[in-house]
Known about the structure:
This protein is an alpha+beta fold. The protein has a single domain, classed as Zincin-like. It has helices at 6-18, 22-27, 41-45, 83-89, 93-111, 116-122, and strands spanning 31-36, 57-60, 77-82. The chain has a three-stranded mixed β-sheet. α1 packs across α5. 21% of the residues are buried. The model has no long low-confidence stretch (mean pLDDT 88).
Amino acid sequence: xxxxxxxxxxxxxxxxxxxxxxxxxxxxxxxxxxxxxxxxxxxxxxxxxxxxxxxxxxxxxxxxxxxxxxxxxxxxxxxxxxxxxxxxxxxxxxxxxxxxxxxxxxxxxxxxxxxxxxxxxxxxxxx
Length: 127
């Protein structure tokens, strides 16, 4: 397992966000991207991830497709990338960069309203 310090991991995430196409940033509304070393118990329980599975990232909030007229004065949605689970999957730092980018895109898709099932089909997975 890779063992980057948290500053280096945060830097990789910031670089991945900066490399996103401009149109994505233009359509992200009230969302904050952050990192954590591990998901909390609450975050794990809020997902369909199995007990012995790794959670690489998590979108918490109200997707754009579900926001109505009552959506205002709401705390920002949150996309969290989890450092240690990503490092456990990565073969090396270059692979970690790729995993971080794919995880961010996956979680942003949830912000845009895609379900996990829809993303699995788009990504060619049969989960």
